[in-house]
Amino acid sequence: MKFDNEISINMLSTSENEAFARLAIAGFIMPLDPTVEELVEFKTAVSEAVTNAIIHGYEGEKKNLNLNFKRHENVIYIECVDYGIGIPNVDEAREALYTSKPEQERSGMGFTVMESFMDEVQVISLKNVGTRILMSKKIMSKNSES
Amino acid sequence: MFEIDKDVLIVKVGREVDHHNAEILRNNVEKKFKENDLKNIVFDFSKTIFMDSSGIGMCIGRYKLAKSVGGNFAVCNIGIEIRRIFDMAGLSKVFYISDTLDNAINGIKKEV
Questions:
Q1: How far apart are CA A8 and CA A20, in angstroms?
Q2: Which of A131, B25, B47, B55 would you label with A3, given CA atoms 20 to 30 Å apart?
């Protein structure tokens, strides 16, 4: 597929970059004139994906993770890639309230939030290779309604 | 950031609650609550414009903290976005949610 726009970000897996990741996706979708609700949904989903990479992929270690945004017409594709420990059982991880880190007060709602705010969420993970979260969502901007 | 009203710790939550900020907030609340030997906690979200699932975990933790000393936990002034996150986790039925700070403070005192 030929994309209309692409941005790739390589960042360290430090928690202060969560706020940057949210601002980045907000900036990326801004030309499509999203509603306030859509903006919050994108920011929250990206925040969850990056947080997942930091806490679960790298378990707090500072390493590199990639965040890629692509746009084809009014569909936004988000990819968050870490090269960490991987998720042993993706289906289990995607269940609401499941967390491998209850002692850190993790709610186990990350994937549930991503799934309810995005149109599609795909998770590919390999032990000691890493995790790739792919999400997409169509922006129903004011322009496309007419 | 904090106010104390008798045995209630009032927490003015910041603009954004993510994993980064939730950890800072958790440590500060924990310290203030124990130092002053308090019973109840109220989170005031009037300044908050963003919260993700890290905020849920942090709130559940403070709910348990208040309950562990026979107190209670309440939230107030939550906007639509934060309400959605609470609803998703089923917390709207668990937490005492109030429109105003005054109602939250009075409410948790009555509940105990």
A1: 13
A2: A131
